[in-house]
Design goal:
2 domains; nucleic acid binding; Putative poly(A) binding cytoplasmic 4 (Inducible form); two-stranded antiparallel ribbon; mainly alpha; about 80 residues; elongated; RBD_domain_sf; about 60% helix
């Protein structure tokens, strides 16, 4: 079967991703994936960050923190850190 260059690249790329991704080579785990544009990478990172943020919020939902006799500077730093 005759393959044009584009189809050949596509076939080898798919094989490389399927076969090489996650393989251990010289003690290092390989990541092989489709090349992404910067906008795609940023969107993926933003989506992951939002997902982790939502998980963290739901995990600590309804948890109370009481700080008795602590300096105001510490109290304000803690309030900033846990503000949702």
């Amino acid at each position: 079967e005759d393959m044009d260059d584009e189809r050949l690249k596509e076939t080898f790329s798919k094989y490389a991703v399927d076969d090489m991704n996650g393989k251990d080579i010289n003690g290092k785990i390989m990541f092989v994936g489709r090349a992404q544009k910067k906008v795609e990478r940023q969107a993926e990172l933003k989506r992951r960050f939002e997902q982790l943020k939502q998980e963290r919020i739901s995990r600590y939902q309804g948890v109370n923190l009481y700080m008795l006799e602590s300096p105001e500077s510490l109290r304000s730093k803690v309030e900033e850190a846990v503000a949702v």
